[in-house]
Design brief:
Blueprint lengths: L1 E3 L12 E7 L9 H8 L5 E4 L17 H16 L2 E6 L6 H10 L5 E5 L6 H10 L4 E2 L2 H12 L3
Parallel strand pairs: 1-3, 2-3, 2-4, 4-5, 5-6
InterPro entries: Nuc_deoxyri_tr2 (IPR039470)
Organism: Microscilla marina ATCC 23134
Protein name: Nucleoside 2-deoxyribosyltransferase like
């Protein structure tokens, strides 16, 4: 298992599946669910693309005039495009606006596995998009881990 985070180069381990960990971060306020996933699959031949940057600075202006911000967004877009799968987690009581954007961008990609808490503020919207585009959905983080394992490890 390998975890790649920004700003590191996106070098996927050969002959492995790459999984982008899309989901609730909320400027660092959401639980670090990505660690739960990567720890649970630590012995798996998977390359995880984790956008949760270790040195994120919440004071960075979110503008095309800010090179750090632009680099972060471009890293995420490149990682989403390179990933074989996108594991998407909408945490309870989270807003996850970027994850909602990514759901729209990749709804038709056939890469998504979605986990949306019943307490997510826009669960109805997520459910409709998943139904419309035949996106597999699971009910909790443990089931998301099992779905990743099924798709990427048990081949």
């Amino acid at each position: 298992m390998k975890v790649i985070k920004p700003p590191d180069s996106i070098d996927i381990i050969p002959n492995t599946k790459a999984v982008f960990l899309a989901g609730s971060i909320d400027m660092g306020n959401a639980i670090n669910w990505q660690v739960t996933v990567t720890q649970a699959l630590a012995d798996s031949p998977v390359t995880f693309l984790n956008p949760r940057r270790d040195d994120w600075d919440a004071s960075w202006e979110q503008s095309t005039n800010n090179p750090q911000f632009v680099a972060q967004v471009n890293w995420e877009l490149e990682a989403l495009e390179k990933a074989h799968y996108i594991a998407m987690y909408f945490a309870p009581h989270s807003k996850a606006p970027i994850t909602l954007l990514e759901l729209g961008l990749f709804a038709q990609s056939k890469k998504l596995i979605v986990c949306c808490s019943k307490n997510f503020w826009r669960k109805g919207n997520v459910d409709v998009v998943c139904q419309r585009y035949d996106i597999p959905q699971v009910t909790n983080l443990e089931n998301l881990i099992q779905a990743i394992k099924k798709e990427c490890v048990e081949i």
